[in-house]
Structures are given as C-alpha cells and as structure tokens.
Design a protein that fits this description.
CATH class: Alpha Beta
Number of domains: 1
CATH architecture: Roll
Distance between the termini: 49 Å
Strand order of the largest sheet: 2-1-6-5-4-3
Low-confidence stretches: 1-14
Oligomer: single chain
Largest sheet: 6 strands, mixed
Structural class: alpha+beta
Number of helices: 4
Length: 156
C-alpha cells in the first residue's frame, strides 16, 4: 500500500527523507536552536559557506567558524535568548525584527536587532545583523541596574 493510500501515513515523508523548511521557518528554527544552546541543530540549518556579518564587527565565513563561536558560548555560563517580533520573506531573503538577549548570571543585555538572511534549499547562506551601539550602551546600563535592583531587570 502506498503512503497516499494509507490514511495513517498522510503528511509523513518516506523514511530518511527530511523536510526542507522554507526560508522564514529555517531562520526561526535556527534562532530558536541557538537560544536552546543546540549548536548542532542550528548548524544543520546553515550552509557550509555561510557568511555571518554583525555589521561593524568582523565577518565570519564558513560553518566551522560560526560553529566554533557558538560552541564556545554554549560552554560558558553566558547565554542567548531571542524574541522575534516580525519575520518576512521575499524570495530567498528573510528579514527579522527581534530582541536579542545576552546574559551572564543576573546581568541581561537586551537590545533590538534587524537581521537579513539569505536562504537557499533550506540552508542559511548569509546572516547579517544590524544593531545600534547607543542602544547597546543603554542596554548595558539597564542590565547593570538590573543586577543591583532585580525588579528593574530587563525581561522579554
């Protein structure tokens, strides 16, 4: 009996065949995996020759370099969280408006980010994030105040 003839098989893929997420879903899965510290899961969504640009910071080229950076972060007491406010796709381009959080113990650095991703065959080939340094400075001050006065600690 074929999969289409078996009502219990509807929506299942043949054994060993993975679904390729669309661009927006691939980006959302990628960011959620990073927030869970699932570096391997995140890297499955990244092309081998990815270009990662945090505008105004050094560019990383290649999945191995990106894996190293996030692998080191996953082994430290520091962490990452994300809230995606908007995500839009046009062809292979995916745009995000989001709040990223970097934290170490009670210190939370929470700031806005706009991201541009290019996705090909379900794999991220370009990840370019834009953020504002003055916003980062304010977030640093707010994070420091939150350490001293926990009720003022930033929350997503």
């Amino acid at each position: 009996m074929s999969a289409t003839e078996d009502p219990s098989a509807v929506g299942r893929r043949p054994e060993g065949q993975e679904a390729t997420p669309d661009g927006a879903e691939a980006v959302a899965q990628f960011l959620r995996a990073l927030a869970r510290e699932d570096v391997d899961g995140a890297m499955r969504l990244v092309a081998p020759k990815i270009v990662y640009e945090n505008v105004s910071l050094p560019t990383l080229r290649g999945r191995d370099r990106v894996r190293r950076v996030f692998g080191v972060l996953a082994r430290t007491p520091a962490g990452f969280d994300v809230r995606i406010h908007r995500i839009a796709q046009n062809g292979s381009a995916v745009l995000t408006e989001r709040t990223d959080v970097l934290f170490l113990g009670p210190f939370r650095l929470q700031f806005w980010v706009c991201g541009v991703f290019e996705v090909s065959d379900g794999r991220i080939t370009l990840w370019r994030d834009y953020f504002d340094w003055s916003n980062m400075l304010r977030a640093t001050v707010r994070g420091a105040v939150g350490v001293l006065i926990p009720r003022l600690r930033p929350r997503l």
